[in-house]
Amino acid sequence: SKGNHRHYMLKEIYEQPVVVAQTLRSYLRRMEDQVSLPIPDFDLGSIRRVTIVACGTSYYAGMVAKYWFEQFARVPVDIDVASEFRYRAPVMEEGGLMIVISQSGETADTLAALRHARAEGQKIAAVVNVPTSTMAREADLLLPTNAGPEIGVASTKAFTCQLAVLAAFAANLARAKGRLDAKAEKELVRHLSEAPAALNGALAYDESIEGMAHLIAGARDVLYLGRGPDYPLALEGALKLKEISYIHAEGYAAGEMKHGPIALIDDKVPVIVLAPSGPLFEKTVSNMQEVQARGGKVVLISDYDGVQAAGEGCMATITMPKVHPLIAPMVYAVPVQLLAYHVAVAKGTDVDQPRNLAKSVTVE
Ligand code: M6R
């Protein structure tokens, strides 16, 4: 049931601190300061290359994970949407692991990619939310997200749980590759363990996000910008808004703005900038200022320090808890979900059953 919530989507957004904690429990050994896998003896050391395939929101989780696999494990990562991967001629070498990511575990394009890769001799890991699904059954390594049933067509809690699993998996791979010493592992475990509390902190901003929904609800087009692991969050924010409010939205890598899309900027196109404090903050802010210099109206999503440093001149700001860059993509998912939700409610659309969309896409 929806409990006290008006829509399943809102209920599922609010479940995130609990289900992410629940998911992490299978991947972290808090007492030992170690990450672990549900199948501890799976041979990760021989993996030389990772190919990530998924659709929609699950694909964006995979895009975030690419940064982690490369940064922590130094393993090369290919990523593609399933419908493209299956029908090109991808090169799959020995020692390759395919990771499929899917809430339902039934998405036809992703399943076809899985079967194709298996036939080419790849090992298969599946990050899925339905443990009885076809992908779960066909994988060599099942990496469950424990988000519980997701009813809203717009994926929310499955996404943050996918990120939690993928971060832990990247750390496991890094250790197997001799790239993560005990001290660094302890640090990673500590940061990941802080995610549920940080998600709670993000939810506390719900009311003020609701209060700014009218700033977006009247727009025809909206842009989302982010850098590094927060770039896929910009794509995810745009997808959420499109799906449930029917407002045209695009996500861009912040640095790409000046290569074209900046031509769209005027005071009628709100620009949502995702810029947590961290090594990429200054760069993203300078892209944001390029937008502002052309009359663009910015909503800055950052932490207290970021909002202090760059919030002046923005149409609105959203203050997130200050978190380690590793968990920022999880935490920043919350405001983009809430913003899409409240804009859709303001427009009076059917949030849980948006037009033309199905929860599970089982035809190619
Ligand atoms: O069940 P899956 O994770 O494989 O589904 C993939 C996409 O169809 C799904 O994420 C879709 O994009 C959602 N409606 C996004 O909110």
TrEMBL record:
One of its GO terms (molecular function) is carbohydrate derivative binding. It is an enzyme of class 2 (transferase). One of its GO terms (cellular component) is cytosol. It catalyses: D-fructose 6-phosphate + L-glutamine = D-glucosamine 6-phosphate + L-glutamate. Its EC number is 2.6.1.16. One of its GO terms (biological process) is UDP-N-acetylglucosamine metabolic process. The active site is at residue 359. It is found in: Cytoplasm. Its main location: cytoplasm. Residues 38-179, 212-354 form the SIS domain. Keywords: Aminotransferase, Cytoplasm, Glutamine amidotransferase, Repeat, Transferase. The keyword DNA-binding does not apply. Catalyzes the first step in hexosamine metabolism, converting fructose-6P into glucosamine-6P using glutamine as a nitrogen source. Homodimer. This is Glutamine--fructose-6-phosphate aminotransferase [isomerizing]. The chain holds residues 244 to 607 of 607 of the full protein.
